[in-house]
Specification:
Strand content: 5-15%
Strand order of the largest sheet: 2-3-4-5-6-8-10
Bound molecules: iron/sulfur cluster
Helix content: 40-55%
Structural class: alpha/beta
Radius of gyration: 19 Å
Distance between the termini: 36 Å
Amino acid sequence: MQNAGIIEKEHFTKEDLLILLSLQGEDLQMLYDKALAVKAQYVGRKVYFRGLIEYSNLCSKNCYYCGIRCRNKKYARYTLTDEEVIEAALYAHRNRFASIVIQSGEQTGNKFTDAIERLLKEISRLTNKELHITLSLGEQSEETYRRWLEAGAQRYLLRIEVSNPGLYKKLHPGDNHHLYSERLGKLHILRKTGYMVGTGVMIGLPFQTTGDLADDLVFFRDFDVDMVGMGPYIEHEDTPLYEYRDQLLPLEDRLELSLKMVAILRIMMKDINIAATTAMQTIDPHGRERALLAGANVMMPNLTPLKYKQEYLLYKNKPGTQDDAEKTKAVMEQNILAAGDEIGYGEWGDPRHFKKRNAGM
Ligand code: SF4
């Protein structure tokens, strides 16, 4: 084992990260083993559920990689009713998930922001504030972030997607509506507002180098993020980026690279929450289990009503779109137990990293 010394280091340099991202065979297994040991020691072998509610597939943006971008006219657009959102939240509460995520394409305007505020208040009231709520609703004004926090949200997930501003430009239209600087600024505002802040990246994109991925890891560390959701980029045929599919790594390689990112990040940021994402499961039916064994500790069972699931496809072949909430939960329970972890039923599972920072430790 040539690279044992690097794995044991307290602080990885960019050169270290490049070596770790290229590990294979026995060396790679050693990386995964180390990440799992760090997870066991710092956050425990426990996985927390966040019931995912895909509130609306309407989006004002046109990201070149995304299936629900506004220019894609092939999807029927939907927004859940308040009753549908509340029913899904109550399902999570009854089943002791302890947390939900409300996600949507990016929308602004009073109708949208008021609806979210109303839902947050209603869910908090009906569950006696026993559910912790993560929002994943894109770039909003500081005032909106604050209103939603006051209405009952605790966490916010805003993926930076790629931390290299040059690469970000290639993946988005060159207008004022898709600015890297804006997105980064929003992450800082979310932190200042008081949320537990999550971000994430896509792995295996066209034009992306291993150096970019190493920089993404450094970005997470420098921002001192509380939660990360990252996974393999999976091409969607109705997007402009599909044109570059011949430049992509095979899917299994993109998954392996994603698992390496999870493992390295777990070693770098020991007490954050890291999601085992659905995109990993798209490539391998054991993808989520493999992510748990590489250091992930959060899963997001999809509670969106079945009739809408096919309309929220950011990428193709998303798994579980034919499964109702019960089946989704059962599959994820199996994944967790197969990985040798337990399920943190009835526990918020807030990132320890956040608690520690706020306790001034
Ligand atoms: S990635 Fe998000 S903001 Fe971009 S088009 Fe898709 S849903 Fe909209």
